[in-house]
Amino acid sequence: MKNDSSGASLAAALRVEIRALRPGARLPSSRALMERHRVSPVTVTRAIGQLAAEGLVVTRPGSGAFVAERPRPRADPPDFGWQAVALGDRTVDASTVRELVSPVPDGMIRLSGGYLHASLQPSRALATAMGRAARRPDAWEAPPPAGLAGLRTWFARATGPDLTPDDVTVTGGGQQSLATVLRALLPPGSPLLVESPTYPGVLALARTIGLQPVPVPVDADGLRPDLLAEAFGVTGARAVYCQPTLHNPTGAVMPSARRERVLAVARAAGAFVVEDDYARHFVTEPVPPPLVTADTEGRVVHIASLTKVTAPSVRIAGVIARGPVAERIRSAQLVTDFFPARPLQEAVLELVGSPGWTRHLAAVGTALTARRDALLTAVARELGAAPRRPSGGLHAWVPLPAGTDDRAVAEAAARAGVRVSAGRPYFPAEADGPHARLSWGAAASEAEIAEGVRRFAGVLA
Predict the structure, then answer these.
(1) Are 325 and 272 in contact (CB under 8 A)?
(2) How far is it, in rounded angstroms, from Cα 11 to Cα 17?
(3) Whole-angstrom Cα distance, residue 127 to residue 122?
(4) 97 — pLDDT class (breaks 50, 70, 90)
C-alpha cells in the first residue's frame, strides 16, 4: 500500500515536470529520481509505467524515459451524430447496477451495495491461493469448458448430497451466470416472472437481452405461490426468477412448505425456476435447503456465487442444472464467454479447500451479525422504524413515510455523506410504497453504521 501511494505521488510530480518539457526530452534517470524523491526502484518503475500507460512518456530500453509526442487538438470536435441512427432506440440502462458497484468518495459512509468491506475479505488467503495457482505448470492452459473438476465437485457437495460434479458448470460470477442462464432458457421477447420487489440487476439484465419482467408480489415468506400460478396462467411464461433464501431486498426466507408449493406451481406450468442462492454463505440461523435439492425433474436452475463472500473480483460461481438444459447452458457460456480464467478457478479451489475457509466463514458470520444488529438498533432509535430482522444476509428493507420520494431522499443522503439505495429500482413495475434498502456488509464498523443511519435520519427529518 505504501509503495502504491509513493508511486502515485511520484507520478503526479512527474506529470507537472512533463508539462514543462518538450516532446522527446529525456526524463531524469531512475537513480536521479530515487535520490531526489527518496523512493525505491520499484516505486520509480511503477510511476514510469503509469505515465507510459497514460501516453505521457515512452520508454527506450537502455536509454531511459522520454516525453511523448502530444496529440494535436482537432480543429472541430468529432461528430458522432450518425451513431444515433445506427444504434436505434434500444438502450442499456445500467444506472441501478452502477450504483451498487461504484466506489464511494472519501468520507462517505456506505450503507449500500452487496460486497463485503475490505476488512472482511480474505485478502491474504486469496493472495496466497493465487500465488500457488499461478505457479502450477498448467496454470495458463485452458480449463475444461464446464470448469475444473475439483471446483465442480466442491459446488455440488456444498449445495446438496444428491448433486454430482456433472450437474455443475463453473461460470464467471453471479451476474454472468444470470445472463447465460436467461439467454439459454428464454428467447428475446419472452416474459420472465420475477419477485416484486427483487434484485435490480436481474431487471436491468432481462430488459437488456430483450425479456419482459413480470412482477409477482412477495410477502413475509417470499414469493406468493397463488399469484405465481396466476402470473403463469396469464402470461404463458416458461421461467420464474426467485431468491428463496434471504431475499434481496426484503430478507425473507421461504419456508419449506412454500418451497414445495412454488415447485408444484412451476411443474403445473411446465416452467423452470431460476434459484439465485446469492446469500447462502451469509445465513446465521437455520433455513431450509436450496430448492434444487428437492427437485427431481431438472426444473430448478440453481446459481451459487462465491463473489459476495470473498471479494468483488472473485468472479466465480456455480450453475447447477440437470437434463438437456445443462448442456444448453454450457453451450451458451462457451459461445459467449468460453470459460472463467483458469488461474482464478485454481485460486478459488485452493481457497475453499484450505482450513482457513471455515474460519473465514465463521468470522464473516460473526461480524455481519454484529453489524446487522447495530443497523437495526440505529434504525429503531433514529427512524422509529422496525424493519424485518433477517436471518443473516446483508440488507434491511426499511419502509419510509408515505409520500416520500425515495430517489430524492437517496440523493439527499449522498450529499449528507451516506449512500443508501432507493427502493423504487427494486420494483419491476409500480412500487407498493416508498422504501430504502440499508446494507451493513460494506460498512467499516458498527460505529460507522450508526453514524450512517444518523445522517440518513437527518435527511428524512
Answers:
(1) yes
(2) 10
(3) 9
(4) confident
Write out the H or E segment, with its range, that includes residue 377: helix 355-383
Q: What angle do CA 309, 172, 441 make, to 5 degrees?
A: 20
Strands (E), 236-326: 239-242, 272-276, 300-305, 317-320
Contact 239, 185 (CB under 8 A): yes
**Residue 336 identity (one-letter amino acid):** T
Backbone phi and psi for residue 397, each to the nearest 5 degrees, phi listed first: -100, 105
Task: Look at the pTM and tell me if it is higher than 0.90.
Answer: no
Half-sphere exposure of 177 (CA within 13 A, CB side): 29
Secondary structure letter of residue 115 according to DSSP: S
H helices within 20-148, ranges in order? 30-37, 41-53, 82-87, 95-101, 123-134
Q: Per-residue DSSP letters for 133-191?
A: HHTSTTTTSPPPTT--HHHHHHHHHHH-TT--GGGEEEES-HHHHHHHHHHHH--TT-E
Extended strands (E) in 224-373: 239-242, 272-276, 300-305, 317-320
Residue pair 239/273 in contact (Cβ under 8 Å)? The answer is: yes
Given a contact cutoff of 8 angstroms between Cβ atoms, the answer to whether 213 and 186 are in contact is no
Asked if 125 contacts 268 with a C-beta cutoff of 8 angstroms, the reply is no
133, 120 Cβ separation under 8 angstroms:
no
Distance from C-alpha of 168 to C-alpha of 292, rounded to nearest angstrom:
12
How many CB atoms lie under 10 A from the CB of residue 459? 18
Task: Give 169-223 pLDDT, tens digit per residue.
Answer: 999 999 999 999 999 999 999 999 999 999 999 999 999 999 999 999 999 999 9
Read off the pLDDT band of 5 (50, 70, 90): low
- Give how far Cα 123 sits from Cα of 31, 100, 103, 217, Å: 33, 21, 18, 39
